Amino acid sequence: MRSVLAVGAHPDDIELGCGATLLAHHQAGDRVTMLVLTGGENGPGDEFGQAGLRRLEQQRAARTLGAELRWGGLRDCTVVPDSATIGIIEAALRATDADLVYVHAPDDSHQDHRAVSAATLSAARRLSRVMHYQSPSTLTFTPTVFVDVTAHLSGKLAALGAHASQVEMSAMVEPDAVVASARHWGAQARIGYAEAFAPTRMVLDLAPALRPSAEVPTPRPAVEDLVVTAHRLSSLIAAPVAAPVAAG
Amino acid sequence: MRSVLAVGAHPDDIELGCGATLLAHHQAGDRVTMLVLTGGENGPGDEFGQAGLRRLEQQRAARTLGAELRWGGLRDCTVVPDSATIGIIEAALRATDADLVYVHAPDDSHQDHRAVSAATLSAARRLSRVMHYQSPSTLTFTPTVFVDVTAHLSGKLAALGAHASQVEMSAMVEPDAVVASARHWGAQARIGYAEAFAPTRMVLDLAPALRPSAEVPTPRPAVEDLVVTAHRLSSLIAAPVAAPVAAG
Amino acid sequence: MRSVLAVGAHPDDIELGCGATLLAHHQAGDRVTMLVLTGGENGPGDEFGQAGLRRLEQQRAARTLGAELRWGGLRDCTVVPDSATIGIIEAALRATDADLVYVHAPDDSHQDHRAVSAATLSAARRLSRVMHYQSPSTLTFTPTVFVDVTAHLSGKLAALGAHASQVEMSAMVEPDAVVASARHWGAQARIGYAEAFAPTRMVLDLAPALRPSAEVPTPRPAVEDLVVTAHRLSSLIAAPVAAPVAAG
Amino acid sequence: MRSVLAVGAHPDDIELGCGATLLAHHQAGDRVTMLVLTGGENGPGDEFGQAGLRRLEQQRAARTLGAELRWGGLRDCTVVPDSATIGIIEAALRATDADLVYVHAPDDSHQDHRAVSAATLSAARRLSRVMHYQSPSTLTFTPTVFVDVTAHLSGKLAALGAHASQVEMSAMVEPDAVVASARHWGAQARIGYAEAFAPTRMVLDLAPALRPSAEVPTPRPAVEDLVVTAHRLSSLIAAPVAAPVAAG
Amino acid sequence: MRSVLAVGAHPDDIELGCGATLLAHHQAGDRVTMLVLTGGENGPGDEFGQAGLRRLEQQRAARTLGAELRWGGLRDCTVVPDSATIGIIEAALRATDADLVYVHAPDDSHQDHRAVSAATLSAARRLSRVMHYQSPSTLTFTPTVFVDVTAHLSGKLAALGAHASQVEMSAMVEPDAVVASARHWGAQARIGYAEAFAPTRMVLDLAPALRPSAEVPTPRPAVEDLVVTAHRLSSLIAAPVAAPVAAG
Amino acid sequence: MRSVLAVGAHPDDIELGCGATLLAHHQAGDRVTMLVLTGGENGPGDEFGQAGLRRLEQQRAARTLGAELRWGGLRDCTVVPDSATIGIIEAALRATDADLVYVHAPDDSHQDHRAVSAATLSAARRLSRVMHYQSPSTLTFTPTVFVDVTAHLSGKLAALGAHASQVEMSAMVEPDAVVASARHWGAQARIGYAEAFAPTRMVLDLAPALRPSAEVPTPRPAVEDLVVTAHRLSSLIAAPVAAPVAAG
Q1: Cβ within 8 Å, pair F248-B99
Q2: How many Å apart are CA A223 and CA C129, to the nearest integer?
Q3: Smallest Cβ distance to F241: which of C223, C246, C248?
Q4: Which residues, listed in sequence order, are joined to residue A93 by a DSSP beta bridge?
Q5: Whole-angstrom Cα distance, residue F4 to residue F1?
Q6: Which residues from chain A sit within 8 angstroms of residue E110, using beta carbons?
Q7: All chains having 3 or more CB pairs closer than 8 angstroms to chain D
Q8: What number of other Cβ atoms are within 10 A of residue A43's Cβ?
Q9: Which residues of E touch A126 (CB under 8 A)?
Q10: Do chain C and F touch: 3 or more Cβ pairs under 8 angstroms?
Q11: Least CB–CB distance from C246: residue in F174, F187, F217
Q12: Residue E60 and residue E67: Cα distance in Å, rounded?
């Protein structure tokens, strides 16, 4: 049994980047923990009185992924990769005894994402397994490691759907793009749907795999079903899928 | 009016890589030429008596893109980037007086794709605009230049559909992955659907753009429509979309 | 008509990086705006009573480029890519409704340049066209997109000449190196003189180009004339061209 | 149970690149096959009547790794990545039903290594797991995936020792450098000793691991013991460890 | 005679990264200066009353390398690449009139290392020779320039041994890994043992070399002797070599 | 005294890439050898009866650089990196006992340049110093090592001028671009004029430099003089400098 820690700057970052992979870990019997560094206690939503709602949403999303949730207590858009931030992540690593960490890719146009990526690399400096996931704001990203999420993509969309109140989400998160990217990376990986990762370092575990029902292949969900799920999700949030950003 | 030359190793390579962009060029009044280096005369299909059929299909695909078609006369899986291959491409550049070339990305696991990319870079050594497109067998690919193909994706799928007889197509070309990648790159480019390019060099044209009806934005096709088109297309070819490659 | 925003950390950064390209935009009928983040109000020159002079110089330089000028109001050598800096750039994007942004390359040894590049990538996170220019302090830089500035190099030198009082300029800005780099990149681009850009993302506009007098090719200025211009410029500033930095 | 195929250009290439990892696969119950493309039947050793001996040595080395051995039948220093070479590797993939392939890194100064890497990428174009190992002649190599070989390094040295007759070995293979690189990559991976890999693509298997005796940690061999083993090995071959290449 | 400045964030960083190269410079008659930015006056060791001890140790280490020692006076884990830090390094460059600088590689998981690398690139912006060394926490690192340290590796280990009190050292610095990396890079460079560097820019000096006793080649130390030295060193510090980090 | 081998595919390739550096080596007392692989005996010029003339020109160019000349005897546009080509370069390495090799950069659009680069990397596989120079057809090139050629640029232009008959030269070689690139790289290296190199590996020589007249700095030639020299040169060859390639 592995202990897996996923670190993200804001609510829904982790779900977007590696939510389906966390589900796969959960199903494999691994312990899964999410560390969300900002937004729970004192995020920008506070002035609208929504902090409590967003806490509930993130809690619900974590539950759908079978994950324990930890909050970093930092403030949105002010994260810096200093000793304090590193200390928060070190504490989560110690508490979970994690041997695998997922975190933002380093080259990202959001300052919080860059800071969280850098701070996690510091905190996990003695860990043998650190992998980076992609966000909509990630810039260069050349993944080489993939996880087959064909069986978990609906679960990922459900976890994203738990963040329905998040008005910011409408700007950068487009559910149909989530499905499309999973299929794009899946084609790269020669499978159906995939989440993609760029490892800083990843020590493989070659121990014999225990696969209870390997004979029964996971059925691949029809594209239409996923698109319908994505659409249903998009109807819950502010921006409709069919016109996310006006083309130049 | 630009003269655009798209170079590909095999029938359907160009359509897959930049078919919608060629349509956009055509619609902008540019002259568009496709140079397919192998497969027309003496491809592997000959033994099944299908060479004639594939010639017709490629001709039909070119017509749907508003493009002139040229054949290189080389044999599938034997292309090398030598003087003879370079000469064929140089002849096409001279005949079309092209000032913009699209060709395979250099890092590709198919030997013909690598050879065509290298030979085109030689032939176009004095040209100021050479851009690389992605194929399913492309390896590293970091695009930075994009073309908005929201209005042309259906046309691209139609052009691909013209290659219905191509049995090889079932292995690597998955229509739903074509749509997914266009959406994935579109999200990267902050638009709807995009084709993605990595330029070797691209001199921009900053002359004032003549845009007859810029006030009427191109409506973005609903995702469902494109998926339905992709499915209709996939029913024409050998492999069903729903199980392209068994996941490991 | 495009709206173009060029962002730079200090007076003369923009002229050095993309001054001739801005002239080309201006000549093509585009709206051009320069956002200079530091140096106007409270730069280091204040202690010499030169702030007013530098404001005038930057204003004059902008005028020679046909550009509107905006100041960011930050202090030289203290720029950080935080929410405040991002907000200044967002305001400029909103005010100009820009659809194309030019900014410093991310890998630069000057802390302000790095900060401005990062903050602009945040501010322009939903924009489809962001291109990076090179400064003398830029480190790795692999341009793939070029603008032909053969007709605008003299204008660029004139804009640089407007910054005659800038004593710092003598250290890193060498006018003959400006001409040499334009010719170097021009050779890379297979044209005469070029400014070079590395795009984060660049959506091409394939609309038909309206070229009023395309039949009359731009005459390429003789190399000697440009060198003479560069020398005349260098005689206006502190360091003579013939001995910029003593070779080790 | 996985089926693993390791592909190398010459005898001892595979052992050097991933010998200890193959031992780890074998111990985990995986099926392991080595495909050596040249050197068995008609290598350059023929003129010294050593072909038979080298066949025996490679056979012995494969046996120490618990691997099945296949020969490609090509001639040393003449490998090209054409259809014939690709076909040989495709046949091995089919025969072993491999789901994981190890092969040379693409950027290598030995023409056979480059050719084998390219041909394997073609042959494995539909496979979800292709990883590249390093050879002494490999040029750029940026590994991100590692296998802990602390328990298998002695076995790797033993497999290398089986190639005692190989006179070429003295030039590029230095046993103490093999141990040093394993420790170097181990430090990168935050473990003891590692073999390092750069994946073209690697789909992770997150099924629960079956670890028979995970409670008993693998004892790490003392550095001295490994060095002594390396030295004993070097005394079997032509060049002494203490003076591999005269320093400039 | 060159003047060489090596810059490091903490005590022992410089010795680890380029200690043997500094010895080679010293032996060639060059002036060598070490600038240690933190840890001397007010490092974290203060609370254990060890600051004085660490100052003495660093002083002793510098002496074994024939180097002058300068302190930056910053506090451990708080270094930022701002004007103040840049000013400290500029002062050292002026005081030593250095024409060659060694400093941390930019991509490092330790925030102080990143900051020192960036600040040094700013301070040395007009210098023609800036090379980056690797630390245990360095991430991507692709060295192309090497120094043969076969004759100076023992001296490097001795300099590291001078830092015996440094409890932190046990975590990331493993003496046997130091020897292994030197041998690994030596094999890359086709020599015995090497320190490896990635230059930002390096102007070569092609003046005729004065080599007093070039006929007598430097004897390469036996691997065993170095390992024994490494072990003796490791017995001085907290963590034993044989079990540095538990393998996952 | 070093022995330096410069390898190029065609007459004038070496002069363009590193001619001034060879002059610097010659002046430092090093032995300099040029190996030109094609064009002497049976190049494409043969049909015009110019092979003899080109042999004489290359011989004259080598003499102006103080270099010994060797011919590879291969045919233009047919070079492949096979054992025969590698053998030719190995013979030159043995004959000259070279410890430093200059050769084309690997990523080049000319097939001969790629082949010569690859074959030289094979032939020099045990050498500690291999550096790549840039050609007009080179694609990606990120130099980090530079040689100050301020005192040798006129000599480089003179060596290029010795190739006056070479009609091909008019297409890609533009003398003013040669000067411009030297100044561009010089600015990168913080000196006057530079030739730029990307090392595969470069072991530095830290022996004390013997500099006979280091007190007298090399005077930097006025830019005008170099441009005049470049123009005089261009009047000797087919294409005038002022209109090398029509800008798009």
Answers
A1: yes
A2: 31
A3: C223
A4: none
A5: 10
A6: 122, 125
A7: A, B, E, F
A8: 21
A9: 171-172, 245
A10: yes
A11: F217
A12: 10
Q: What is the pTM of this model?
A: 0.90
How far apart are the C-alpha atoms of A54 and A42, rounded to whole Å? 11
Contacts of A82 in chain E (CB under 8 A): 77-78, 111
**Which residue from E1, E125, E206 is facing F24, i.e. has the nearest CB?**
E206
Residue of E nearest to F190 (CA): E128
Q: Answer for the pair D175, D157: CB distance below 8 angstroms, yes or no.
A: yes
Three-class DSSP category at B104:
strand
Which A residues, 55 through 94, put their C-beta within 8 Å of a C-beta on chain D? none
Give residue B94's identity as a one-letter amino acid code: R
Q: Is the Cβ–Cβ distance between B224 and B232 less than 8 Å? A: no
Q: Do chains C and D touch (3 or more CB pairs under 8 A)?
A: no
Q: What is the dihedral of CA C9, C12, C15, C16, to 10 degrees?
A: -90
Distance from CA of E44 to the nearest CA of C (A): 27
The residue type found at D24 is A
- The single residue listed with the structure tokens 């760029």 is A198
Q: Phi and psi dihedrals of A231, rounded to 5?
A: -70, -40
Binary contact (D203, A127; C-beta < 8 A): no
Residue F136 has phi, psi (to 5 degrees) of: -60, -25
Tell me the DSSP string of D33-78. EEEEEESSSS-GGGGGT-HHHHHHHHHHHHHHTT-EEEEEEEPTT-
Q: Which has the closest alpha carbon to A230: D187, F114, B227?
A: B227
SS3 content of chain B, % helix, strand, coil (to 5): 40, 20, 40
**F194-203: pLDDT as tens digits:** 999 999 999 9
CB contact under 8 A, A126 and E248: no
* Rounded distance between C-alpha atoms, residue D139 and residue D123, angstroms: 23
* SS3 label, residue B136: coil
Q: Does the beta carbon of D209 lie under 8 angstroms from any beta carbon of chain F?
A: no
* Average pLDDT of span C173-180: 89
C192 at F interface, C-beta within 8 A: yes
- A59 Cβ contact partners less than 8 Å away, ≥ 6 residues apart: A69
Contacts of F85 (CB under 8 A, 6+ apart): F37, F72, F74, F79, F115, F116, F119
Stated as kind and residue range, the H or E segment containing D111 is helix D111-123
Chain-centre distance for alpha carbon E66: 13
Q: In Å, how far are B64, B155, D166 from B158, measured between CA atoms? A: 8, 5, 58
d(CA E12, CA D211): 40
Distance from CA of B224 to the nearest CA of A (A): 7
For chain A, the DSSP string reads --EEEEEESSTTHHHHHHHHHHHHHHHTT-EEEEEEEESSSS-GGGGGT-HHHHHHHHHHHHHHTT-EEEEEEE-TT----SHHHHHHHHHHHHHHT-SEEEEE-S-BSSHHHHHHHHHHHHHTTT-SEEEEE--TTB-S----EEEE-TTTHHHHHHHHHTTTT-TTHHHH--HHHHHHHHHHHHHHTTSSSEEEEEEEEEEE--SPB--TTTTSPPPPPPHHHHHHHHHHHHHHSSS-TT-SS---
Element (H, E) at F150: none
Chains that touch E (3 or more CB pairs under 8 A): A, C, D, F
**How far is the alpha carbon of A110 from chain B, nearest alpha carbon, in Å?**
14
Ordered per-residue pLDDT tens for chain A, 248 residues: 899 999 999 999 999 999 999 999 999 999 999 999 998 554 444 444 566 788 889 999 999 999 999 999 999 999 999 999 999 999 999 999 999 999 999 999 999 999 999 999 999 999 999 999 999 999 999 999 999 999 999 999 999 999 876 644 444 578 899 999 999 999 999 999 999 999 999 999 887 766 544 444 455 555 556 665 665 555 544 333 333 333 33
Chain centroid, CA F151 distance in Å: 16
* Amino acid making up residue C146: F
- Residue F172's closest chain B neighbor by CA? B126
The complex's ipTM works out to 0.86
